[in-house]
Amino acid sequence: TIRTMLLPKSSAEISGQEVVNPTEFFSKVLAPFFVSRFMLLPAPLLLVPGVGPTLFGHAIVNLVLAELLTNIHGFITIVTNHAGDDLYTFNDAIKPKS
User: Fold this and answer.
1) Phi and psi (nearest 5°) for 6?
2) What whole-number distance in Å separates Cα of residue 60 and Cα of residue 62?
3) For residue 44, how far is the Cα from the chain centroid?
4) Which of 5, 9, 55 is nearest to 30 (CA)?
5) What is the pTM (predicted TM-score) of this model?
6) Is the C or the N end of the chain the one with fewer CB within 10 Å?
7) In angstroms, rounded to a whole number, what is the distance separating the alpha carbons of residues 90 and 74?
């Protein structure tokens, strides 16, 4: 998680930083997404004379709310479909063939 990357507590979390460098993760994965999605996409609205900043602000709010609703919907769909007695389970442990 992001908290684990920023504030590692256990030795396993600290060793995880060797696998995924937090600085590179934020600069190469998250930053391009946030810049393109929440700045570049609505930026042309700033060119509308008079109401550009207002339209830009409303577009940002709309994009953030849409992102939150999409994540909530995905969470509800996945969690409810991957929990319950109808899931197939093995009676004993599975041994890898490697």
Assistant:
1) -85, -40
2) 5
3) 25
4) 5
5) 0.67
6) C
7) 27
- Look up residue 45 and give its two tokens: 């609205």
pLDDT in tens, 45-62: 999 999 999 999 999 999
CA–centroid distance for 82 within its chain = 20
Q: What share of the chain is helix, strand, coil (3-state, %, to 5)?
A: 70, 0, 30
Between 49 and 98, the more confident residue is 49
Here the tokens at position 53 are 């900043």
Integer angstrom CA distances of residue 41 from 32, 35, 77: 12, 9, 28
CA atoms within 13 A on the CB side of 35: 7
Yes or no: say if 41 and 51 are a contact pair by the CB < 8 Å rule. no
